[in-house]
Amino acid sequence: MNTTDDKSQATEAYAKHKKVYPREVHGVFASLRVTGVLVLLGLYYLIPWISWDGHQSVLFDLPARKFYIFSMTFWPQDFFYLAILLIIAALALFFFTALAGRLWCGYACPQTVWTEVFLWIERKFEGDRNKQIKNDKAPWVKSNVFRKFGKHTAWILFSLWTGFTFVGFFTPIIELGQSLLQFTLGPWETFWIIFYSFATYGNAGWMREQVCIYMCPYARFQSAMFDENTLVISYDTQRGEPRGSRKKNINPRDIGLGDCVDCTMCVQACPTGIDIRDGMQYQCIGCAACIDICNEVMGKLDYEKGLVKYTTENAIEGKATQVFRPRMIVYAVLLATITLGLLYSMATRVPLKLDIIRDRNALYRETNEEWIENVYTLKIINMDKLDHHLALSVSGISGMRLKGVDKKLIAVSGTVMEKVVRIEVDPTMLNKAGYDITFRLQAVDQPSLTINEKGRFIGPLRR
Questions:
Q1: Is the CATH code 2.60.40.10 the one for domain 352-458?
Q2: Preceding omega of 76 cis (within 30 degrees of 0)
């Protein structure tokens, strides 16, 4: 057995991780990325502090089984809305990935957003890329220790604030803050603040690109959604090769070189440490940092920009790019249809729910008047923020009578009310064993709140 070869193979398979020091980049795409970070984090940290109609603007109150999203209140019975939202999110991911690659990863993914903040904090304490590399190689002198300590302190404080805000979406954030100051936090709140803070600190501070490369499944199947018309970040090989250094005023064609000066700035700017000149790689998150930095270099050399750019496989081969292709049309139509359907459903949503449970002990009964009677248990759920005076009626069989309903049926906000009612029908009106009937529930104080639910009336079988 050759142990030397085995060790060599093991070393190649499990290479030690090398820290990536992304160079700070300025440009069009960097500005878009910063804008995305500010907007997304602004929404995340500010929304819990905004009050709306007497409650927190966005609050998922699990103990009370109420989910407040601005003026709307959802209940577990509205769970299908979440399913529709997940379908919309999946279709949007397919649509934008097929259109322009990993836009989600480069501009909106939480891993990218929080990593950008952590990188900014790191640069404030340790300087730019070159200073960070130099300091990490230098001995642990007092100034170096202070910089590291300050950076990690800022990281931890920011992570704790992130974890606190996350829990604030499930526990009213003002109450949560008061409990924190009074050291009366519950065990679950404490656990989730610490857990989410630790996850933020670990993922954005330490793991960074490793989350994108090794942990995120999207990196593995993203190429399945690409085609020859998908916009991806590419290096123009025909224009850039052969690469090599040269003086500014020399025409590269006169010395047999392409436009790439082999400065490796694109590699230094990449947050995952790849070389875009090696072609498309699953590690690329589509942040376009390499485009900004390369355009900056091309500008200094008075070369045409776009050596690294968003382009398509067809464009590289000199073919026409088709934006409106079948898959894009299908994605767009499905996405628009489901989104509009969801918005319409939410706009016309009635915050009342009626569940009808028919008495299973007896199919039917005969009253003293020899009428046929069915018994039902009604569960009325008022999902509105207001109490409502309700009116209940039933239709479906001529002359049917509804018994057991209060003249003033009040449904208290946020409660489930059970009511046992009886329906009586003249047997002469029945000529078959079963009939479909309709229960109608309407708010007297707000007639637009009306729901209809189907029920079943059972009578004797006529021969």
A1: yes
A2: no
